[in-house]
Design a protein that fits this description.
- Helices cover 69% and strands 3% of the residues.
- The longest helix has 63 residues.
């Protein structure tokens, strides 16, 4: 049952079971071929073993798709999703724009009795002339004049930060409307609303044009334009909610929604800017123009003459 092993000065018995285990371990050291079959001698030299993802593909497994999907595929997916996120943020901005603009029409009632909690004209004792001035000249006149300056500003500065700042400003105007205790304060809130909302379309449409190709730009503009009707629909539904929460709380609710839309656009723009910086290769300095090269040659000091050999 034992086989002696003779060493330098020692003789140790070894069971045959241990010899069998050693033979099995030596067999395991041979390289495996396709599907785990031990190849014959010289087979590995002629045809190396297949990689793991090819074995999984031959066996019918779908996990080779996960092996093939690397960081490049994930970056392409995120790049394709980024314009949609920008469009969604712009739709929220446009919805808040139209909601804040059309809200005062749902907060007033003339000709019949009403409570000061429910209607703005009853709380601030507004007549029809004051409300007409509030909804027309206080907003429209400043809006039309500020649109010219807004277009120039969107051509000079970055459009996304301009739109974020404008939406945050009309959010503050809506909050001022909800906290107004006199007609001049209400008039000032509408004036700030008209100036700030003039920056919406001059900044939004170029952002859509930059994010979408010409084949999908029309659909993107159509989706963005739907925010106009959604905002007016929310302003009409505000007349129903106004009976429960009051006109001041309704104004503060629209201000909170506008601030949320502004924060969403800021987050999407920041993520897009970081992705652009990480993806862009290092830029080499621009080559000088012929005029710049000529000027540099004239500015260089003259070289001393080299001594010629005798």
């Amino acid at each position: 049952s034992c086989f002696p092993i003779v060493g330098p000065g020692t003789v140790l018995p070894m069971p045959r079971v241990v010899l069998a285990l050693l033979a099995f371990a030596a067999a395991l050291e041979r390289p495996l071929g396709v599907d785990g079959v031990v190849p014959a001698r010289g087979y590995v030299a002629r045809r190396p073993a297949l990689p793991a993802w090819q074995l999984q593909r031959r066996r019918g497994s779908s996990s080779h798709l996960l092996c093939a999907a690397g960081p490049a595929a994930q970056s392409k997916t995120s790049a394709a999703r980024r314009p949609r996120l920008l469009l969604g943020a712009l739709v929220l901005i446009y919805v808040s724009n139209q909601w804040c603009r059309a809200l005062p029409a749902s907060l007033v009632r003339f000709g019949s009795g009403g409570s000061a909690h429910e209607f703005m004209n009853v709380a601030l004792e507004l007549d029809e002339v004051q409300y007409g001035l509030l909804s027309s000249y206080a907003f429209t006149a400043l809006y039309s004049v500020a649109s010219l300056a807004a277009g120039a500003a969107c051509d000079i500065f970055a459009r996304a930060p301009v739109l974020v700042a404008a939406s945050a400003l009309w959010s503050g105007a809506a909050a001022l409307q909800g906290c107004a205790s006199s007609y001049p304060q209400l008039l000032a809130s509408r004036a700030v609303l008209g100036v700030s909302q003039a920056f919406c379309s001059p900044a939004a449409y170029p952002l859509i044009g930059e994010a979408f190709s010409k084949d999908s730009r029309g659909r993107a503009n159509a989706v963005y334009s739907s925010g106009l009707y959604i905002g007016y629909a929310l302003a009409s539904l505000s007349a129903l909610a106004n009976r429960r929460i009051g006109w001041r709380a309704m104004s503060l609710l629209t201000a909170a929604f506008s601030l949320l839309a502004s924060a969403t656009l800021a987050a999407v723009a920041a993520a897009s800017r970081r992705a652009t910086i990480n993806r862009s290769p290092p830029q080499s300095p621009p080559l000088p123009s012929p005029l710049q090269r000529r000027r540099r040659q004239h500015q260089q000091p003259p070289q001393p003459p080299q001594p010629q050999p005798p």
